[in-house]
Design a protein that fits this description.
- 3% of the residues lie in helices and 52% in strands.
- It has one helix at 94-98, and strands at 2-4, 9-11, 14-16, 20-24, 34-42, 48-56, 62-64, 70-72, 78-80, 84-86, 89-93, 103-104, 109-118, 128-135, 138-143.
- With 144 residues, it is mainly β.
- The strands form three sheets. Strands 1, 4, 5, 7, 8, 9 and 13 form a seven-stranded antiparallel sheet that branches. Strands 6, 10, 11, 12, 14 and 15 form a six-stranded antiparallel sheet that branches. A two-stranded antiparallel ribbon has the order 2-3.
- The chain is built from one helix and 15 strands, in the order βββββββββββαββββ.
Length: 144
C-alpha cells in the first residue's frame, strides 16, 4: 500500500509535498509463519530529519524476529538494528540507531526491512507502519 502526501501543506510559508510511505509484505500470514516486510520512506521536496519508524502489529501473536532488521540509508549504507519496544510498537529512531543526527535529502529514500513471526495460536490482523519526521522545523508523519 502506498500513501503519498500529495496535497500541499502550507505552514509558515513552507510547502511540504511528495513524501511517501510504502509498507510492503504479505497481505496475510498464517499461524506459525515468518515473513519479510519493508517500509520505504521517500522525502518530499524538503530535507527530512528526526526520522522515526514505528510498526504496530495487529495483535500480540505477532513477534519481531530478533536480528532481522536492516536499515538502508539513502547513501547505500546498511545498518543492522533491532527496534526498541514501546508498548505494542517496534520503534526505530534513526538518530538513536546511528548515534548522530541523520538527514534524508529531498527525493531520497530510506528503507527499513524486517521479519515478523506469528505464533501457532495467532489471529490474523493488519500490520501498520508510521514514520514521524521533521521538515523545515515542522513535525510531520505519514501512515500506511
Amino acid at each position: 500500500m502506498r500513501i503519498a502526501a500529495l496535497a500541499a501543506l502550507c505552514l509558515g510559508g513552507v510547502l511540504a509535498l511528495g513524501q511517501t510511505l510504502d509498507l510492503a509484505g504479505p497481505t496475510t500470514m498464517g499461524r506459525c509463519e515468518e515473513a519479510q516486510f519493508s517500509v520505504t520512506f521517500t522525502a518530499g521536496i524538503q530535507t527530512a530529519s528526526n526520522i522515526i519508524f514505528a510498526i504496530t502489529p495487529p495483535n500480540l501473536g505477532f513477534t519481531y524476529v530478533s536480528g532481522s532488521a536492516i536499515i538502508a540509508l539513502h547513501d547505500g549504507v546498511e545498518i543492522y538494528a533491532d527496534p526498541a519496544k514501546v508498548d505494542s510498537q517496534w520503534i526505530w529512531d534513526l538518530h538513536q540507531v546511528l548515534g548522530e543526527a541523520y538527514e534524508l535529502p529531498p527525493g531520497a529514500v530510506v528503507v527499513l526491512e524486517f521479519a515478523l513471526a506469528t505464533g501457532c495460536g495467532t489471529i490474523s490482523g493488519t500490520l501498520s507502519a508510521r514514520v514521524d519526521y521533521v521538515e523545515e522545523g515542522i513535525p510531520l508523519y505519514l501512515m500506511d
